[in-house]
Amino acid sequence: MTYHELLRKEPAPLFFAFTNSFFSCYGQSHFIALFSLMIFQTYKITNTTFGTLYAAATLLSAFALPFLGPLIDRVDVRKYCLGVFFGLLSGVFLLFRTKYILGLFIAIFLLRLLGQGLCTHINGVCTARYFGLNRGKALSLTNVGFPLAEGVFTPLIALVIGFYGELNTTYLLAVILTSVYLPATFFITKKNHLYNHGPQEGEFVDAHTNKKSWTPREVLRHKIFYLLISHSVFPAFSLSGFLIYQLSYTQAKGWPLQTIAFSMSLFAIGRLLSSFLIGPLVDKLGAIQLFPYYQIPLTIAFVILWGFSPILTSYVGLFLCGLTVGAAAPIKSSLWAELYGIQHLGAIKSLFATIIVVVTSISPLFFGWMVDQQKHLQLLLLLSLISLITTLMGSWAIYLYKKQIQASAISTPH
User: Fold this and answer.
1) Closest listed residue to residue 335, CA positions, set 274, 285, 391, 295
2) Numbers of helices and strands, H then E, in the chain
3) For 190-246, what is each residue's pLDDT tens digit?
4) Which long-range contacts (CB under 8 A, 24 or more apart) does 86-92 make?
5) CA–CA gap between residue 92 and residue 174 (Å, rounded)
6) What is the pTM of this model?
7) Residues 6 or more apart from 100 whose CB is under 8 A from it?
């Protein structure tokens, strides 16, 4: 099935998932970073202090994910999204209107949990679960929301802030959320029974999906899982910190501030391009075959950003980062279904999301400290080395998994 055929056959479920990927931007680092100058000026805090506050709110959201994430395996998905909507709306108002540190902390917590956490979770789980043999292409289509938010929506909101201020931006963001997210998630799939119950045994199984559905406890006992995690979480860790402090890197390199906007647009283009190229390959080859290679552009990007100073460096580096992020989405969302089945996919992905959020919660604190110490270049070199190491660990994990499958096939009587 081609992209066009998939869009024509399943427009409502695709738009449902796309809406969640798009509005995850409300809790993403690059979006919250738009308001960092306002936060620094209002509260008179340093990069390290803000990084600590941001890390604590992100870490707290990670502790909530194991309780909220698995609910998508058991409840009406539409009602699940309704809860996300009200929480996200509360976070929007609180972030931009609070005058107290506690209010700022709660706002960041809500946005990180519901935006970055659950909106991304809903998109990945529902799409991977319901599209079977077309999972890769469906994820490529629904994941368009991420680069669209980064490359178009975020710069537009930055312009709105510049012209109309943070208070008016609050109202605009609330209106957009209410007029788009609510109808797209609660009403558009009303007649689709797949969004009104958790997955039933035997549903949505395809050639790539593991026929046995692992429980989260079994996954945690699978030694290869930890090698997979190391390869999976590093892009989120590195880019979460890098993007939220990109203004500092731009100033350290002596680049004009406009460099950020154009670099983020190229990041979005790279993300979109790789997502559409990888989707059909996931359906054809399986995510297991592609997983070891998706982080290579990120490694090259950090080497370039570390070793070169022309403005073009930023454009090439962020484009390469986008290639990795775009490829990661369909590959990783499909990977867990292929390895561990779909019966407990929500719980397994929330387990993964918890780990990734815990790791990324450290990122702003670590990056903030390095920026305050003026160690920009040293950090970029360190990131490139860690990226190379985790890529090798991911390749080793897939090698071990294939060896296990071969050993199991030999030992199983025919």
Assistant:
1) 285
2) 21, 0
3) 766 666 655 555 444 544 555 567 888 888 888 888 888 888 889 988 887 887 777
4) 87/113, 87/114, 88/23, 88/26, 88/27, 88/114, 88/115, 88/119, 88/177, 88/181, 89/174, 89/177, 89/178, 91/26, 91/27, 91/115, 92/26, 92/170, 92/173, 92/174, 92/177
5) 7
6) 0.75
7) none
